[in-house]
Each structure stands twice: as C-alpha cells, then as structure tokens.
C-alpha cells in the first residue's frame, strides 16, 4: 500500500516492511520479537496501567508516575506518563510487524482492542491524546516544549501506517489521518494558527511517513512547516510560557539547545542537546530534503553528520554520553563506564542515517547505520527478546544488567520495532534503481516505476561476508543496482553470472551496475572480514592506550564469563594477525574472537594500594564476543576498549 501517488521528487525511499522477507541472523531476531517481545511489551503496558489511561470506558485513573523536579525543588510540568501514548504506539508498531511475520489471533485481537480505545477516545475535532483528554483536560496545546503532544501523535501515525501495511486494517490509519488534519488546522503561519512545533521531535518524520502512505501532500507540507518554524524568533516556547504565566528561565533544561530550537535548523552546525530529539529532528529534515529536493537542508545535515561522527559518537554507534540531559556534552567526551548511550538514541541514529540515503546511496551513512544497528542499538534487546538495556555503557564492573521493564519504557518497543522492521532498512528504492544498503539472508520484492524486482540474498552475514544475490524479473529490465561496499572491507570482489566484475573507482562506496538485467542473473559479492584493532582519536581520554576489536560490522567486547574478572588486566598484542574465530553455542553460534594476549598478575601485592614492584605478565587467550550479545550469560564485568601493547 505504501505506493506514493504524489509526483515524486527523485530520491530513494525504503520499502515497506512486508516487502522484504528476512531470514538468517535477522530472521532469528525477528522471530524472537514475534514469538516473545511483542506480547511481553503488551503485557508490561497492561501492568503499568497504560490502558486505564487510554480507554475512555474506564474510570480516570490516578497519576502513577512521579513528576520531574525543577531546579528549585518544585514539581515540574512533566512526567513520563504524559507520553505513554507513544510507548503504546511503538508496541502497536512492533506488533504490526510481528503479526505480519507470524499471524497470532490473540495478539491481533489485543491490538485491535487498543486501536478501538483510541478510536473511542478521539474527540469530535480529531484531537487525540490520552493525557490531555483524561488526565489534564483543558490544557491541550499549552506546553509544546515539555508535554510531548505532537511526539505522541507522531508515534501513533507511525503505528497506523505499520498496522495498515501489516494487516490492511484501516481503523487506526483513519483515526490518525483525522488527527493529522486537526494538527494541520491548528499549526501553521496563518493568524488563526499556532506557529509552534514540538519540544520532542518525531512528528516531522511521522508526517512524512503518513504522507507517503496516504499520498496526501498536505502531510508532507506540514512536516516541512514544523522543520522551518523551529528556532525562529520570537521563540515559540518563550511566547507559549508567557501565555501560561511562567518564566521560561525557570525551565529545568535551561537552554533550547536541549531540544534543538536554539537556532533555525539551517543555521545549526553542532549536534547538541538531547540525543534522541536531535536524531529525530535530523531524520525529519532528511525526509523533507528528499521529498522537496531541498539542498539547503541536505547541506546543513552533512555538516551535522560530520560533527557527530567525527567527535561525538561511540565506536558502537552509541551517542549521548551524559545522563543529565540524555545527550551530548563536549567534543570527544566519550567515557565508557558512565556512557548513557540510550538504546533509543542508537535506534534514532540509524533512522537518521537511513534517511540520509534518501538522496542517493552513500556509504558514509550506510556504514554508520550498520555500526549503530549491530552494536549500540541491538545491545538493547536480549538474544531471546525478553530483556532490555536503556543505557549502553562500553565498560561494566558487573552491575549493569538488562531490565525487564523501565520506569521510562521508551527503549524496549523502540528496539523491538526496529528489529522487526529491519527489511525496510536494507534497501533504498527509486524510480529506476535499487540500492542494497545492508546484507542479510532475505528475499525482497521491490517495485520500481515499471518493473517488479525480486532480490534474493543468500548469506550468513554478519558471520561471513560472502553474499549471493539472485535477480528475479517477470521480464528483462534496465535499472541501476547499487551494492554497498562497507568501509571496513579493503578487498571486495564481485562476479556477475560467474564473470569477474572490475570494481575500479566506486561511487560513494557503492558498486553501481546499470544494465539490462535478465531473470536469473546471479551476483556474488565477497566482503572479506578481517579482525581489526580500532584506535580512538587521542582526545578521547577514556580510550588512550586501548583498542576496540572489530570484525565486519561487529564491535567486540571481553566478558567476565570468558576471561574471568579484572578485565583491565588484559593486554592485547600490537597486531591481531593471530586472531581466530570460534562459535559460541550458548550465544546462538555467534563467532567469538580468540586472541593470544597477556594478563597482568599481582602475586606480591598483599592488599597494598601502591607498590614499587610491577605486576607479572602471563600468557593467556582472550576470548571476545560481539558487544550486542553481552549480558546474555552469567552476569559479570564487560569491556570494549581493551589495553594494548605497542
Ligand atoms: O521523552 C521521551 C523519551 O523518553 C526520550 O526520547 C527518551 O530519551 C526518554 O527520555
Ligand atoms: Zn529510550
């Protein structure tokens, strides 16, 4: 259904989730989400009391979640219960993809019942927000800065598109179109409209998704309006606070950098503030740039991309080191043990990266999308799909473990919906071309303007970098196929129907094959995966004298379960040529890296804090596992950046 009836700006768009049948590595993870996570998320929402707030047939419940506290110790205007609609929306989105993969009448009936609650809750004028209808009536649209109203609307729009794609049921889509129409009447430049935008971005990218799904240009225009209005003077959040009779200076976050409204978006050059907010904003900007061929936004985004990825991103693709603002601090401030690196932020970075591919394949974006996906984001979900990380440190003394739930449950459904939708991140489709951004065992049915292309990938990626791609066509067709060569691979090779393809100069890191394709054409892409030692920029103090070990897209870590405690006593050799891989049965057969290493041993210490005698050095074999799999076995220490001798 996600065929756009609008006149298209040229550009690449993701396929709908059902267009890609995923197997292999990601198929196993999707099965875990379909078999367990989706229902777990639903049940945790029940237990939290979320549906008591949403269902208009039930008595209005008491406020359950504590209010945030202002700097002066008084209760703030915000608590996490205000954005429960968004958490439920992400659960619906997860369930939608899960149902598509594995029909489940019980889960479907439960989701239909939630949708029915929202439909009954919707007001005559289209407004829909459980907090402001039931918990704080009369205060709608009075505090866009803090209260997440448009953010909740955005997540519900995404859920509506997903549920329609997966089940062909229109109820939530119709509800959300009515709500989008209400928002379109309420916000804009006219004198009878509010020139506002949300304190937590999300509505922008969601309106693009709704516009693409329904063919309604006005949703795309409204997304552009929200982007363009952000940070203009007079500042909307100041004006709005004055209307509420409060001093904006008393705001607990102090600076509008927190929500990226300190400047109009095209004047922003530095990635600042709350990490998820920033990534969702840039995602929306990239979508608007694609839909409107807006080079001014693309240029701004390129600068922000460079700022983030060259100075503010963990090697795992995690972002936002600080808990205080759930976001960015100073350049190169990337502490490992105290890293906040919220799961949602890595997911949101993937979302931004995938949208930077909207204007054409370019591996600098796809590489980071993959880096965040396989490491900082996927770590947020346990291998069996039942437990979740909120923050993702790169070092632990053994006290950091996945939660079954969180007071602020934004991350569990965010990583679940992302895993369940992974097929849509794998490809970009334009009128006359297909780009393969991610590799994985799968079959994709992709509609170009005049031809349906079936691409079948056979591969064990990310365990191995050999990918066989079969081309299926109803009739011969000419189109461009772009294959990403990841930046970590130095020696790629390709054959087409058994003939070697000379790779020569690559365009943006993609092999581009523009030719007349025949049904049954076969490509074999080989991306050898060597074990690599990564060294951080010297300004990252936490990583001095240390290396992170990587293979293919995976960042590795040492765990106490394999190396005993005191992981900081491990010292890796200067080169990793002797590295071997070996499967770990209890981690689904994932490949561990085995490395000859040394280990400091303090036999003479006698409990002393300081001693003139250096430690002894013992030869050991370090066993490293993919970072995303840590804390799936016995609890214990974990370390990504390991000491290295040079
Ligand atoms: O505010 C909504 C979500 O909750 C944010 O995106 C997360 O960082 C968490 O604070
Ligand atoms: Zn989160």
Describe the structure.
With 646 residues, this protein is of the alpha+beta class. It folds into three domains: 3-426, Glycosyltransferase (Alpha/alpha barrel), CATH 1.50.10; 431-526, Immunoglobulin-like, CATH 2.60.40.1180; 531-644, no CATH class. It contains 17 helices and 21 strands. It has helices spanning 24-48, 50-54, 84-101, 105-121, 130-135, 149-167, 171-186, 203-214, 217-229, 236-244, 275-292, 295-311, 343-356, 363-377, 411-420, 422-426, 560-563; strands at residues 20-22, 395-396, 427-430, 433-436, 442-447, 452-459, 466-473, 477-484, 493-496, 499-500, 510-517, 522-526, 531-534, 546-551, 554-559, 570-572, 580-584, 590-601, 616-626, 638-639, 642-644. The strands form three sheets. Strands 1-5-6-7-12-9-10 form a seven-stranded antiparallel beta sheet. Strands 14-15-19-18-16-21 form a six-stranded mixed beta barrel. Strand 9 and strand 10 form a beta hairpin. It is globular and about 75 Å long. The site of beta-L-arabinofuranose has 8 residues, from loops.
Summary of the model, kept short:
The chain is of the alpha+beta class and 646 residues long. It has helices at 24-48, 50-54, 84-101, 105-121, 130-135, 149-167, 171-186, 203-214, 217-229, 236-244, 275-292, 295-311, 343-356, 363-377, 411-420, 422-426, 560-563; strands spanning 20-22, 395-396, 427-430, 433-436, 442-447, 452-459, 466-473, 477-484, 493-496, 499-500, 510-517, 522-526, 531-534, 546-551, 554-559, 570-572, 580-584, 590-601, 616-626, 638-639, 642-644. A hairpin with a 2-residue loop joins β9 (493-496) and β10.
